[in-house]
């Protein structure tokens, strides 16, 4: 998927396409995670879809829930979803920044190879 150390730097068009694909994957992951959170809050805490969206979005954004869980299953779900949301946040950031960091490192290695010649 990525060019190797001694290959040429990918064209700007290819890089932008790669960035778009990674951003799309992150968006799909966040959307699916948001849907799971909304469904969980709806089923376990009997919140409205809008309140489930708000709580899920706040957790996925790293802010924390708005409504305090009232039921034992709801508390269990909220705790597990909070742990999951933290991981999804980190994975999403990694997905989006991977092409940028790779391009920077690849450019650095290409310049390093030119200087040693």
Describe the structure.
The protein is mainly α. It has one domain (12-115): Helix Hairpins. The chain is built from three helices and no strands. The chain is elongated. It starts with 11 loop residues before the first helix and ends with a helix.
List the helices and strands and how they pair.
Blueprint: H1 12-45, H2 49-60, H3 72-115
Helix pairs in contact: 1-2, 1-3
Summed up, what is this model?
By secondary structure, this protein is an all-alpha fold. It has helices at residues 12-45, 49-60, 72-115. Helices cover 77% and strands 0% of the residues.
Give a quick set of tags describing it.
3 helices; Helix Hairpins; about 120 residues; mainly alpha; elongated
Average pLDDT confidence is 89
Poorly predicted sequence stretches spanning 5 or more consecutive residues: none
What is the count of structural domains?
1
By CATH, the topology is Helix Hairpins
Shape designation: elongated
Tell me about the largest β-sheet: none
The helix content is: over 70%
SSE-based structural type: mainly alpha
Number of helices: 3
Order of secondary-structure elements: HHH
E-strand count: 0
Output the radius of gyration. Answer: 20 Å
CATH class: Mainly Alpha
State the end-to-end CA separation.
Answer: 28 Å
- Percentage of β-strand residues: under 5%
By CATH, the architecture is named Orthogonal Bundle
């Amino acid at each position: 998927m990525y060019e190797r150390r001694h290959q040429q730097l990918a064209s700007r068009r290819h890089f932008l396409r790669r960035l778009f694909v990674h951003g799309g994957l992150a968006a799909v992951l966040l959307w699916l995670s948001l849907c799971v959170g909304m469904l969980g809050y709806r089923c376990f805490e009997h919140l409205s879809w809008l309140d489930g969206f708000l709580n899920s979005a706040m957790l996925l954004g790293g802010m924390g829930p708005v409504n305090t869980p009232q039921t034992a299953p709801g508390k269990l779900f909220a705790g597990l979803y909070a742990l999951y949301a933290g991981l999804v946040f980190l994975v999403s950031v990694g997905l989006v920044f991977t092409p940028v960091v790779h391009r920077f490192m690849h450019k650095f290695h290409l310049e390093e190879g030119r200087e040693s010649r």
